[in-house]
Amino acid sequence: MPESNVSVVPANEASWDDLQTVFGRGAAAKCQCQRIKLGDHDWFGMPVEERAHRLREETDCDHPEADRTSGMVAYLEGEPVGWVAVEPRAHYRRLRGSSVPWAGRAEDQEDPDVWAIVCFAIRPGYRGQGLTRPLAAAAVEYARAHGAKAVEAYPMVPKPGQIVSWGEMNVGSRSTFAAAGLRDVSHPTTRRVVMRLDLD
Q1: Calpha distance 36→95 (Å, rounded)
Q2: 3 state DSSP class of 87
Q3: pTM of the model
Q4: How far apart are CA 13 and CA 59, in angstroms?
Q5: Residue-wise DSSP of 114-159
């Protein structure tokens, strides 16, 4: 798919209805991109309606004048098709409670200047068309524009020939982040790699 046909905007410049259209009725609609923010314990006990309320406050959809948001929405020829979550790494409670991002690294988990790209949602019917690449590239530039000194991601690394469900690959692929300029910094598990881009 030519990336020239794809536009990506901060979520506050998108409508709430467009974002919910991207999420559809599956796992993304159930999660509302809150599991990584809340951690498993609090997420499991929270009704979907409350998760959606939290996301709406975080994204500030329908308010283009807002100077911050928590993600970006992709459009293909005007149709909402994708989402990426990006904001300071310290905002993601589930990351802080996991060993994956930190294994073998001396990182300040609360560093507000390191941002993270943690989740993609691609609307059913539009998957497999390379939409995560323009979303990742836009997320990096959004982080840069808002003062990030580095951007990280934690993609899944399937075994050769392994079929991985979209629900597991919502963290993104190594090739998606490599195309956005991130490079491997650690390989804490057989299924995950930490990638990073230090920004000027």
Answers
A1: 7
A2: strand
A3: 0.92
A4: 9
A5: EEEEEEEEE-TTSTTSSTHHHHHHHHHHHHHHTT-SEEEE--B-PP
pLDDT tens string for the chain (200 positions)? 556 689 999 999 999 999 999 999 889 999 999 999 998 889 999 999 999 999 999 999 999 999 889 999 999 999 999 999 999 999 999 888 787 788 888 888 889 999 999 999 999 999 889 999 999 999 999 999 999 999 999 998 876 766 665 566 789 999 999 999 999 999 888 888 999 999 97
d(CA 103, CA 157): 17
Question: What Rg value do the Cα atoms of the chain yield, rounded?
Answer: 16
Domains and CATH numbers, the chain: 3-198 (3.40.630.30)
Distance between CA atoms of 118 and 95, rounded to whole angstroms? 9
Separation between Cα atoms, residue 103 and residue 115, nearest integer Å: 18
Q: Which amino acid is at 86?
A: V
Query: Please, what's the b/e burial string for 24-44 (b: 16 or more CB within 10 A of its CB; e: otherwise)?
Result: eeeebeebbbbbbbbbeeebe
CA distance 185 to 200: 18
